[in-house]
Write a structure and sequence with these properties.
single chain, 8-stranded antiparallel β-sheet, alpha+beta, globular
């Protein structure tokens, strides 16, 4: 019979887990070979017909070079990524949406992959996202390029770390997705096409975590044609507050605003060509000299 020591007074150091945790193993990330991505056409500037919407331009020294190209494009199915030379994240993404040909592709176990067309060290991979509050946030939303006969390929293509940015779970799963849901739902409802640019705002004082400077704001520019033939473009900005203290992440409030394309260009250094000319917010700022912004709490707040 076991003797019970009634004088035993345990301290924390004496306590053991009820179930031993499994050892944390970080599997080696899958890498898509250049051959497996060959032939991708990527973003098309002519997707909206006569309303041509080319890729934003950016100083060449900011763009990560891509072997065999002089423009830094990483083309996937119905979208394109241009990577930052220094930040290991995308400068911007560009996607073509076609609501009339949209295909619902179930999400199930799609593994994230590095893109073998650029060096692995130029991409922020799984090591950034392990055991913390960051989501692997799609820049090109998974559903956006899933249209036409190549929808399944487009879906898989979105799961590349080049199309990924660290976003706090509550940020990625709620407010930003609500805006994306609205955009996608409207292209499906009126059978419109749209071209969507998305990216982070890089600042010199962004907090560094696991060797990666974490963007605190993200933007989105949407170009489309109204039913009456009017070309239009709108811009949105959402910010997340992140404090990095050692291995801890502390986050605060975030808000979404409709902003002018002019202001997004100033924040990012990107040139959106003629898009500010068909953006009411940009034209209002030109006319008044005052910053225009609209807080977005729901679809009723968006002006197009």
């Amino acid at each position: 019979m076991t003797t019970i020591d009634l004088h035993y007074r345990p301290r924390l150091v004496d306590l053991r887990p009820l179930v031993a945790p499994a050892p944390a193993l970080l599997a080696e990330a899958r890498t898509s070979s250049p051959a497996s991505l060959a032939g991708r056409e990527g973003y098309s500037a002519d997707h909206l017909g006569a309303f041509a919407v080319p890729l934003p331009t950016v100083p060449a020294d900011a763009v990560l070079p891509v072997a065999g190209r002089d423009d830094g494009r990483l083309d996937y199915t119905h979208f394109t990524v241009v990577m930052s030379r220094t930040r290991r994240l995308a400068l911007f993404t560009a996607a073509n949406l076609d609501g009339s040909a949209s295909v619902s592709v179930p999400r199930g176990g799609d593994p994230w992959a590095l893109d073998g067309r650029i060096p692995a060290e130029a991409q922020a991979g799984d090591a950034l996202y392990a055991d913390n509050d960051f989501d692997r946030g799609h820049l090109v939303r998974r559903e956006d390029p899933n249209w036409g006969p190549d929808a399944a390929t487009a879906n898989r293509d979105t799961f590349h770390f080049t199309n990924c940015a660290p976003q706090l779970s509550v940020f990625n799963q709620r407010t930003w997705l609500e805006l994306e849901d609205y955009i996608l739902a409207n292209t499906r409802r009126v059978r419109e096409r749209a071209s969507v640019f998305t990216g982070p705002v890089f600042r010199a004082d962004d907090p560094v975590y696991r060797g990666v400077a974490i963007p605190l704001a993200f933007w989105k520019v949407v170009a489309f044609v109204h039913d009456d033939g009017r070309p239009s473009a709108t811009a949105y900005l959402i910010a997340q507050e992140v404090d990095v203290d050692g291995m801890a992440l502390l986050f605060g409030a975030f808000r979404t605003y409709q902003r002018s394309i002019r202001s997004i260009a100033e924040m990012t250094g990107l040139d959106f060509g003629a898009l500010p000319d068909v953006d009411g917010f940009s034209n209002e700022e030109r006319a008044t000299g005052e910053t225009v912004r609209q807080r977005i709490t729901g679809a009723a707040d968006i002006r197009v």
